[in-house]
Write a structure and sequence with these properties.
Blueprint lengths: L5 E4 L1 E9 L1 H6 L8 E7 L1 E2 L2 E2 L1 E2 L9 H7 L1 H5 L2 H4 L7 E8 L5 E3 L3 H7 L7 E8 L4 E6 L5 H10 L6 E5 L5 E4 L5 E3 L3 E8 L5 E4 L15 H7 L14 E4 L3 E8 L4 E7 L2 E4 L7 E14 L2 E6 L3 E4 L6 E13 L4 H10 L4 H4 L12
Antiparallel strand pairs: 1-6, 1-22, 2-3, 3-7, 4-5, 7-14, 8-15, 9-12, 9-14, 10-11, 10-13, 16-17, 17-18, 18-23, 19-23, 20-21, 20-22, 20-23
This protein binds zinc ion.
């Protein structure tokens, strides 16, 4: 059995805060309503995606990963002892506010929850005009103040709320207090983890009439107070060629993500080095691999295993391409070759995560 570009069937999740936008934006044929999350590429036990077509159709990503671990991971496998497929890609539709929450880092999560921590990024696809989200705490917030505000139900005064528009990107290191608010459709790229500590639920009641469970002690422990968030850099890390426009959105030890807009032609050569994931956001194109043509279109999510040969993509389309970088140097070298200065590169969302890695 030989691997090929794998397209996945997502796992849809109904949520009390979900909506209808995943269906309408991507033209997806989904039964059920109030879909809050689509797990597009996932090997997490809470929602495992299956291959859509080809010789591996209907196979679970978890099974494919155990059978083809080194073919999928490539050289990455030698460096990191991944027992599971390490990334989780989702689409989220918040028609109502989500609870205010925080994720632990690797060491806390492995010790307390038996799974990796969660570093994540959000790429905003669609947002209503007044849409905003919670991104970190206000600078004066201490652990003591936060604890008291949680007990009194007044945490809102310490939340840093920012306006959002389509195309915005938010890098969310572990320890960052965050929440999606209503009217936002986005892509989430994250470590494969489902550990979330809820700190505040806007004083709402859950479906049973009682407030939802909070995880205050753990949240207080893992929250970074007065952390500096590097999300909005002044530099746009854009690479322009005749064939495509690429933009580096974020890079950290767990993933790097580029937005690629193809005007004509684009090549990916995994060369045994690493796998890539693609999420098509706009347009339609043709992916050509070993003389076989695959149509890829808005709403498709693909995994390109590391042991694939050269892949060509043609058409007019935009996608997010993610991969796990070797190290910080790889990202710096790539951007320096494109003319970005060391000073500018320091602003790339996520790049400072290597300091605490
Ligand atoms: Zn989160």
């Amino acid at each position: 059995m030989e691997l090929y570009p794998l397209k996945f069937k997502p796992v849809y999740k109904e949520k009390i805060w979900g909506g209808e936008k995943i269906k309408s934006y991507f033209n997806k044929n989904i039964s059920g309503s109030s879909i809050g999350e689509s797990w597009e590429i996932s090997a997490h036990p809470h929602g495992i995606s299956t291959v859509l077509d080809g010789p591996l159709a209907e196979k679970k990503l978890t099974d494919i990963f155990s059978n083809f671990k080194s073919e999928i991971l490539g050289k990455l496998a030698e460096k990191n002892n991944y027992q599971k497929f390490p990334l989780l890609l989702k689409i989220l539709d918040a028609s109502k506010k989500l609870s205010v929450q925080v994720h632990p880092d690797n060491s806390f999560a492995l010790q307390n929850e038996g799974e990796p921590g969660k570093t994540e990024m959000w790429y905003i696809l669609d947002a209503e005009p007044e849409a905003q989200l919670v991104y970190g705490l206000k600078p004066e917030t201490s652990r003591k103040k936060m604890k008291q505000a949680i007990q009194e139900g007044t945490l809102e005064k310490y939340l840093n709320r920012v306006p959002v528009k389509p195309g915005d990107c938010f890098f969310i290191p572990p320890g960052t207090i965050h929440a999606l608010e209503e009217g936002i459709l986005l892509v989430e790229i994250q470590q494969s983890s489902d550990t979330t500590y809820r700190v505040y639920d806007w004083n709402r009641k859950g479906q049973n009439g009682k407030p939802r469970e909070l995880h205050i002690e753990k949240a207080l422990q893992v929250t970074s107070y007065s952390a500096e968030l590097n999300t909005k850099s002044n530099t746009e890390f854009i690479i322009n060629t005749a064939d495509y426009t690429g933009e580096f959105l974020a890079a950290c030890p767990y993933f790097a993500t580029e937005k690629i807009q193809i005007h004509n032609n684009y090549h990916i050569h995994p060369a045994g080095e690493r796998f890539y994931t693609l999420m098509v956001l706009e347009g339609t194109g043709t992916l050509i691999y070993k003389n076989k043509k695959y149509t890829i279109t808005k709403g498709d999510s693909l995994l390109l295993p590391a042991f694939l040969d050269r892949i060509q993509i043609t058409g007019e389309l935009t996608f997010l391409k993610s991969f796990i970088p070797d190290d910080k140097i790889q990202i710096i070298n790539t951007l320096q070759k494109e003319g970005f200065t060391e000073q500018q590169i320091k602003e790339l969302p996520g790049i400072r995560s290597w300091e605490s890695f």
